[in-house]
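Archive entry: two folds, one per protein. Generate the first.
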Amino acid sequence: MKLAFSTLGVPGLPLPDVLRLASAHGYHGVELRAHPEEPVHAGLSPAQRADAAALFRAAGVEVLGLAGYARVAAPGEDGPVIEEVRELVGLAHDLGAPFVRVFPGAGAEQSPDEADAVAARRLGTAAEYAADLGVRILLETHDSHRTGAAATRVLGLVGHRQAGALWDVMHTWLGGEQPLDTYAALAPYLGYVQVKDIASTEDTTPLALGAGVLPLAECVEVLARHGWDGWLCWEYEKRWYETAEPLEGLLDAGREHLRRLLNESA
C-alpha cells in the first residue's frame, strides 16, 4: 500500500512546501483539498493547472485525489450539484489525479430511500462524464451515509465503475460498523482509505496516528488479509481544529506507524 496525506492538515500551505513535506517525510502522494482558500481549486486557469501538475511531476509525488465538497444527496436541484462534480472531475483530469471525493450530505427532511435515489441519479450522470476523462468519483463514508453499508446502498443503484467509495475510518467507526463489515461492503467499490486518529466519540480533535481510539490496526489488517494494495491517506483535520498539533512534526512518526501496521499484517 502507498501512503499519502491530505492538505487538510496543512491549510493554505503553498504547493512547493506541500511537496517538500511529502518528499522529505517519505509519502508517495498527496490528497489536495479543493477549496478556494487552498492553492488548488476549480477556479484555476489552464496555465495554473499545468503549472501545478508540473510541480508534482518534478517532485516525483502523485496527486492521489481532490477532496471536493459536493453533496450528492442534498435536497435541491440536480444541475448545480452535477456541475460542481463535473468541475472537480475536470480539475482532477488536468492535474493527473485519478480520484475526486464527494460527500453524501442528505438532509434530515429526506427519507433514506429518497436520499439514496437522489445521490445515485447525480452520481450516475457525473460518472458518464468522469469516464471520458479517466477519473473516478468516490463517495466518502461521511455524514448521512457514514457506514460502508449506507454508502453501498447508493453505489449499488449507480452501477457505474467510475463511481466508487472512499473509506473514512473515523466515520465508519462512529457509525458502529466493524472494519471487516466495512471492507466487505466497500470492497467492490473501494478507491482508497482515509486514516486518522481521535481521542473519543466526544472529542474528535485529530491526534497522531496510534495515539487515539480508532481501530487502525484492524483496518490495515483487514485490507492486507484481502490483498488490497491501494492508498492509505492520512486526513489530519488541522483546518477544523486550530489548536491541534501541527502536522509537519507528526509526519515521520505517522509514516512509521503505518509501515509498522503494514509489516505486522504481512
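Generate the second and append.
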Amino acid sequence: MTADEDKHKDEGRIMKAIIYRANGGPEVLELVERDLPEPGPGEVRVRVAVSGVNPTDWKARQGANGSLAFPEYTPHHDAGGVIDAVGEGVDAGRVGQRVWLHMAAGGRPTGTAAEYTVVPVERTAPLPDEVGFDVAAALGVPALTAHRALTVAEDAPDRLSPGALEGKVVLAAGGAGAVGHAVIQLARWAGATVISTVSGPEKARLAKAAGAHHVVNYREGDPAAEIRALAPNGVDIVAEVALGANLDLDLAVLATRGTIATYANDGNKPVALAVRQNMTLNTRFQFLVLYTVGPKALAAGAEDVSAALRDGALPVGEEHGLPLHRFPLDRTAEAQRAVAEGAVGKVLVDVAP
C-alpha cells in the first residue's frame, strides 16, 4: 500500500486526546475528539498503550515554560505503544514495531495523552517483546535524566554499559522517586556501588527493592558519617533532587573531583556555595534538564537505556521499588494532580482500552 493510499484509508478516522488551550490547573485539561494525525517526513505515528506522567507535565501546564507556543497542547512526554504509520524517509518496516517514546511533547504540541501521537522517529526506541508497556511508559524523562546525571562526571565515562561505573560510588538522593529509582537501576547495571538517601522506612524499602546496596535515612542520626563509613573515599557522583536542602550533606560526603548532578530543587531552598570548599574539592556541578540537553546526549541516553532494558535491568512495580498508580485517559487531570501532590512511585495513564 502506498503512502497516499494509507492517508486515504485514515481519512475520517478520529481519536480521543487530552488537550489544554491555556495555562492553569488540572481543570484546563479537556478530553476531545480529533482527526487521526498523519506523520510528516521523518516522523512516525504511534498507537499509544500507556502514557507516563512526570512533574514536568503539570509544571508546563501551569506555565513553567512560559506562554503557549501552539493553540493547543496534548501533554506528556513518555509512553509505550506501537508504530502504525510512518512518514516520508522512515523505513516502512517499522510499522507494527513496539516502542518506548521519549520527549514526545518537547517543542511540539503532540504529547502522549492521546490514542495516537506523531513524533520524530528519533524519539522512539524499540521495545523488546518481553517488556511491557508499563515499563516503556516509565522510562523517558526519569531514565534519560538518570543517564545524564550518571555520565557527566570528570572521572567517569560518558556512556553507560555493564562495568562502566565499576569502582565508582553513586549517591541517589530520593531513591524512592521515579528519577532516583532509575538512577539506582542504571548505576547498579553499570557496576557502581549505590547508596540512596530516603526520608523513612517505607521509602527505604523501595530504594532497596530498586537495587540500592545501602540506604541512609537523612532524617536520623548523622547521615554524613553513615555515608562516609560506607564510602571512606567519598561519593563520586551525586544525583540530586533537592540541591538547596541537601547541599551540605552532598559536600560532606563528596569525593575530590566529585560531581553533583542536579535535576530539581525540591523544596526550593536557596543554594549558597562556599567557594573555597568547592575549590578544594574541585567540585563539578552539573545542572540538567532534558529540554535543552541536546540531541547527542538524548540519543546516547536512549541507546544506553535500551541496552539496559534488553538486559532486564529496568523493571517497575512495587516489588521492584516503583509502585504504579493507574488512571484511564478521561481522568488524566487526576493523574497529573497525583504527581503534583507527591505520589510515591510512577503515575500512568492507560490509553488503549
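Annotation attached to the second fold: The two ends are 27 Å apart (CA to CA). DSSP finds eleven helices and 15 strands in the chain.
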